[in-house]
Amino acid sequence: MTMVIQTALTIGGAGLACGGLLALAAKFLAVKEDPRIEEINGILPGANCGGCGYAGCAAYAEAVLLKGAPINLCAPGGAEVLGHLADITGETAKVAEHKVAIVLCGGDVSYAPRKFDYNGVADCRAAQATGGGDKSCSYGCLGYASCSHACPVGAIEMVNGIAKVHRDLCISCGSCIRTCPRHLIKMVPYARTIHVMCSSKDKGPVVKKACKVGCIGCTICTKLAENESIKMEGFLAVVDYDKELDNDAVIEKCPGKCIVRI
Amino acid sequence: MGFIKAKFNAPGGVHPAYHKDLAAEQPIAEMPLSASLVVSMSQHLGKPAAPTVKKGDSVLRGQVIGEAAGFISAAVHAPTSGTVKLVADVATAAGPRATAITIEPDGEDTWVEGITPCPDWHQQDKKEIVEKIAAAGITGMGGAGFPTHVKVSPPPDSEIDTLILNGAECEPYLTADYRLMLEKATEIWQGALIIAKALDAKTIYVAIEDNKPQAIAAMQEALPAEVGDAQVVALKTEYPQGAEKQQIFAVTGREVPAGGLPLNVGIVVENVGTTLAVWDAVVNGRPLTERVTTVTGGPVAKPGNVLARIGTSCADMVEFCGGTEGPVAKIISGGPMMGFAQADMSGPTTKTTSGLLLLDPTSVHAYESMPCISCGRCVGVCPMNLMPNELSQFLEAEDYETAEAYNVMDCIECGCCAFECPAHRPLVQHMRRGKAQVMLNRRKQAS
Amino acid sequence: MSDLAIVSSSPHAHSGSSVRRIMLDVIIALVPALLVSVYFFGWDALRLTLACVITCLAAEALSRKAMGRNLGIDDLSAVITGMLLAFNLPPTLPTWMAVVGSVFAIVICKQLFGGIGYNPFNPALAGRVMLLISFPVFMTRWSEWTLPSPLAMDAVTSATPLGLVKTTIGSTGALPFTFDGTTMLQLFVGNQNGCIGEVSAAALLLGGIYLLVRRCITWHIPVAYLATVAVFSGILWMHHPQQNLPPHFHLLSGGLMLGALFMATDMVTSPVTKRGMLVFGVGCGILTMLIRKWGGYPEGVSFAILLMNAITPLINRATRPRVFGAPKGGKKQS
Amino acid sequence: MTEYVLLIIGAVLVNNFVLTRFLGICPFLGVSKKLPTALGMCGAVIFVMTSASAVTWALQHLVLEKIGLGYLQTIAFILVIASFVQLVDIAMKKFAPPLHAALGIFLPLITTNCAVLGVSVLNVQLQYGFLKAVVFGFAASLGFSLALIIFTGLREKIDRANPPKAFQGIAIALVTAGLLSLAFMGFAGLV
Question: Is residue A14 part of a domain?
Fold first, then answer.
């Protein structure tokens, strides 16, 4: 019995001593920080994709509380995260429209040949800086998969030498957009399915020579499409995603076969 | 008075096979006008020139067809008289697109009015000289194409005491500068004196690699009596002796600070071709409309040094040199160490095209993406004392912060590392891409 | 091949060197030592070398295939690993052990890291050390050969010269033999007990000179290594000539020549800067002598080089050259 | 004097805590990604191990043995060590926040770093006197630091390596640690 008491006393005493010491330390060396930062960090998806424009989820969490960053910047988190953030910060914000990335080029190897034999680093930015890229079309997808490597969720697949986005996997972080040296990737509303799969600003004859599925600037689609939802930008037809477009005629009538439904 | 030997030698360096014998003994030959000339608005570092003519305009030789668009930019002139056929954006070999003006010559080759020779350039003061250089659209003709009028008008707080004429021509195959030094030594010296006057430089050195004894002798002989402190310096034959920072060190022992410019150590370096263009502009009043290009390489039937109008297509130049014999696997604008490979021969020459090199399939080097075996050769040969082995690995892993911390921005892209690499890694391409990305990140951060 | 022109980044010229050519040069440089070992150890030398080389090649090919990567045996690096491992084995070792060592060297020490260029440790040495620790008896059972040499005087113990010294000094406190010219000559040509490839300093030096001439190695590591051993042992010897071996004996015995010329100079696992190479060589020398003099093993070359392999990344970091134009003696960038 | 030198060499090289005794593997693998973090960890471990050696020695010899409670060793030691680590944690958060953030979870985990408990228990087992116990604790932490720094260098190299998918990350790090441990066998018999 004495032993039990002795044991209890010793351990208890040592514990008390240590606890006291720590209590003092905690008091005198305390560092203030907002516990909500940690809380927000826990709610964010943790993909650190950088889509919000900050260095990572933790940086965004800090920015929301300390720098007053908008709370609807986290695309991967969607409505759920936004709801939580609104609860914590007391702010309200609309859910940003669900957008997905799309590579506006349909000229795969069977349509657009190579114009020289590229030998070097397998990276689009490197290829672009070496002889201007080896694709016949100087606007088309080079196919060295830089965007695919940059995608944090593996949503971009290389098919027949060009990049294709799996729209259901895309978390709209925008990492791919930043890597494409030819600026072919756009964020478009998920709901939209009709796209002009070409980005060539060249004139018709040049496009025709370079690629079998390029936009030749014939302007047929702009006449067919309702309320100017397809417009010409120079020699290129561009979908205006702010306006409704659901018209199969543009797809059927396109002589370049570059308007498709995805 | 003999020439002096360089007292110093920069770190690193390699000894590629020179192949200068192909074209070295061929005197400069003037080429007839092509059927069409394509003049790029982006032949220099900095902002592309702004076109001042449109389709259908007729132009005269020496007429400004592109205005300098900013301080670091250069004017572009019509290389001959004729009609503007097209003004269009074209892809350049280096990547970015640029406007180019296609001119169909009328065969008259009429000079624009207002070309006034001024044989006694001594009458002109510093300001006039700089203005004439700017008006003539002269850019560095060694390869980088930095606008010369910017170089010869240093900021007022920097004192330039030395002018170095770069006649090293350390790139294998190329002999254009060599021929110029043999054939135009007197004019080059006059050009040097003009630049020295603009800079207030007291000392002039002409740096030539010691594998060109004839050029050294020619420049030595032509040394004008009127000049006080001028000297021909023989550099050890080693690539890259023609690189600015390395040459400055070899000649004067001064180290240009990392990230700095030669004027930080009171020096300006000018290529001999540029110097000749300055002479032409100041004494003859003529803008830059032609240059000497070495057309060489195994498949070229009669390699030679060609004086051609700017905008002449590569194919025409090769045709002038007897066409090709055997297969051509690689077309390079410039030398083999720093030149740009071209997709085909349709591209035009520019103010910076010092050479046009064709390689047959056996002399093409293929890059592989083998892992680095840490042999350290790239570290030993890097003239900037960098460690290309690990830089390339950081860049492969897209770790730009580390690469920047380890001085990737100091890389001069001379190619020594990739030349030596037994694993055949595309080291220079990694560096180039890394530098571009770091610049991009810096700009993003600044904004 | 297509008719299209090839476009690549500059430079468009190359020195013509290649990994394969370097490896081939190392193999050529190892041939003299192989011939000498066959002369002294006969069939056993050939048996072990063949076993190791074939196993290494097979292991490399199979493991790369299993990983779904290109067959990368034509760079010949596996041949060198095999030869070096064999050279570090005693002639009496059973073939199956040599095979186990080779598999360990190639699969665990090299291919798991991604193959050539990625391995932090010299695979041959790691294989040897693994065998030494796993099969200490076999790995230290020396020749049953009666070598025509005064150094093989004790047929019963049949130890290596260094092993003999360690045991004799331990028990009697005196050195077992004298260091006259004949002994030294025998050591130099390779008439001594030891691992099959390490015995002949003469043959190894010949190979080392070939590598130097072919620019496959630079002088920094071997010279720093050998000089450090010479100086370290020289100091000990002058201090206590009865207790310590003279420097020339240290230089010519054990695996030092093989290690200094062929294994410490392994490009992948040694520093890339010249200053780093000197540091590396000196470190190898000090560790070798520490283990030879005070350690539990009679020979310390393998361990010394492996330990220096481990700190090679730190050496590279610390000996980064000053960027041309950066302030002299200025702040180092992190 | 020689005695202490040998003690230090023994604890640093021959019986290195990480590489031959296999204690403290968790922080060894956890904070060996970047050199600055590793150095911070080394500092923390050196402080904790040395002072824990002193305190646990005192606790063992002045309290537990006096009242015949030697069997409470483990639990009492853990108590002391845990408090010490908390102290370091609080202090570091105050004075070196970036380092604190970088070390993250591994700082409180020194608590369960068996190397710390190991050195305290070994001190008792080997019946070292006070000074010797403190020196041993310090030497052991030096050995830990040496191993951690070497390993961090290696980690930076193998991070750029290209192992098969199954071996990426911690697996290849463990293989490397094994090979490093193999190399350290060379020091066997040195003391």
Answer: no
Cβ-based neighbours of C171, under 8 Å, separated by 6 or more: none
CA A126 to chain centroid, in Å, comes to: 21
| CATH code: domain of residue A174 | 3.30.70.20
Q: What's the confidence (pLDDT) of residue A196?
A: 92
Averaged pLDDT, C126-133: 94
Rounded to the nearest angstrom, the minimum Cα separation between C114 and chain D is 4
Q: Is B62 or D115 the better-scoring residue by pLDDT?
A: B62
B397:D162 CB<8 A: no
Residue from the list C114, C316, C325 with its beta carbon closest to the beta carbon of B255: C325
List, for residues A218-243, the tens digit of each pLDDT value.
888 988 887 888 999 989 999 998 88
What stretches of C140-242 show up as alpha helix (H) in DSSP?
161-172, 181-189, 201-213, 220-239
Q: Please indicate, yes or no, whether residues A238 and A256 belong to a single structural domain of this protein.
A: yes
Co-location of A188 and A143 in the same domain: yes
CATH number, position B132: 3.40.50.11540
* Interface contact flag, B367 A133, Cβ < 8 Å: no
Q: Kindly state whether residues B269 and B167 are assigned to the same domain.
A: yes
Query: Which ipTM did the prediction report?
Result: 0.86
Report chain D's mean pLDDT, rounded to a whole number.
86
Decide if A118 and C2 are in contact by the 8 Å CB cutoff: no
Q: Which of A114, A120, A129 sits opposite C4 (nearest CB)?
A: A114
- Do A114 and A193 reside in the same domain of the chain? yes
Number of domains in chain B: 2
> With contacts defined as CB-CB under 8 Å, which chain D residues touch B397?
160
CA distance D45 to D39: 10
Residue A228 bridge partners (DSSP): none
Neighbouring chains to D with at least 3 Cβ pairs closer than 8 Å: A, B, C
Instruction: Clarify whether residues A75 and A192 are in a common domain.
Output: no
Together in a domain, A113 and A233:
yes
Mean pLDDT of B2-24: 88
D72·A30 Cβ contact <8 A: no
- Nearest-neighbour CA in chain D from B372: distance (Å): 10
Please list every residue in chain D whose beta carbon sits closer than 8 Å to the beta carbon of residue C130.
182
Which chains does C contact via 3+ CB–CB distances below 8 A?
Answer: A, B, D
Categorize the per-residue pLDDT at B55 as very low, low, confident or very high, splitting at 50, 70 and 90. Answer: very high
Structure tokens at B272: 């001999």
Residues from chain A contacting residue B92 (CB–CB below 8 Å): 132
On whether both A79 and A132 belong to a single domain, the answer is: no
Distance (Å, whole) CA A102 – CA C213: 57
Residues listed for chain A: 262
Which range of residues forms the domain containing residue B417?
377-446
Whole domain around residue A146: which residue ranges?
99-261
- Report CB contact under 8 Å: C268, B373: yes
CB within 8 Å: B393 and D160? yes
Residue B315 has pLDDT above 60, yes or no: yes
**Is 50 exceeded by the pLDDT of residue B447?**
yes
Q: What is the pLDDT of residues C7-57, one digit of tens each?
A: 999 899 999 999 999 999 999 999 999 999 888 888 889 999 999 999 999
Is the CB of D182 less than 8 angstroms away from the CB of C126?
Answer: yes
Are the CB atoms for A238 and A198 separated by under 8 Å? no
CB pairs under 8 A between A and C: 28
Q: For position A42, which CATH number holds? A: 1.10.15.40
Q: Does C71 touch chain B if contact means CB atoms closer than 8 Å?
A: no
Residue B76 has φ and ψ, to the nearest 5°, of -120, 135
* Partners of residue C4 in chain A, C-beta under 8 Å: 114-117
| Contact residues on chain D for B371, CB-CB shorter than 8 A | 162
> Do both A172 and A203 map to the same domain?
yes
Q: Which chain B residue is nearest to residue C312, measuring alpha carbons?
A: B374
- Higher confidence at residue C103 or residue D107? C103
